[in-house]
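Q: Hi! First time doing this. I have a protein sequence and I read that you can turn it into a structure. Is that right? Here it is:
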Amino acid sequence: MTKPVTKPANQNTSTATTKAPSFKTGDHVVYPVHGVGLVEGVETQTIGGMEISLYTIKFDKDRMRLKLPVQKAESSGLRKLATTDRLKKALETLEGRSRIKRTMWSRRAQEYEAKINSGDPVSIAEVLRDLKRSNDDTEQSYSERQIYQNALERLAREVAAIRKIGEPEATLQLESFLTTATKAA
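A: Yes, that's right. Below is the predicted 3D structure, encoded as structure tokens:
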């Protein structure tokens, strides 16, 4: 059994035939299932006799590190932080009217989880908008509150990274925005 050998990646040679997004050490990125992470570096490991370049991404909130092959970055959904225009669209989505379907809760819950795990800030904002109650949070079930909280944390992490503020401050901004939007509706 051979042990993977870790060594710095050669930044000058590129074997990729397609133009994949390039991330540098220190870049904030979004991985759909885990949210915002920080690229710690790019390294090459020899696995099964093949040299593979890997991004090392640190997710502070989950206390984990992810090693993702550079060639798989695009297909896995790894992306840069949302643009200010995309963030603006997500915030506008929060202002819209709630669109709760009259389907079974289990089906809606699956759809909400899929939207959260898509990593798209507008889709996450849709979940927040749909699960936000105007006055009384006690009418939400436990699972609704859990999904709402998960969506809020995920969007707040991206807002915090984009605006270079703390996550608690971003959460307060989003909650304030949601409260104002639901009162206006």
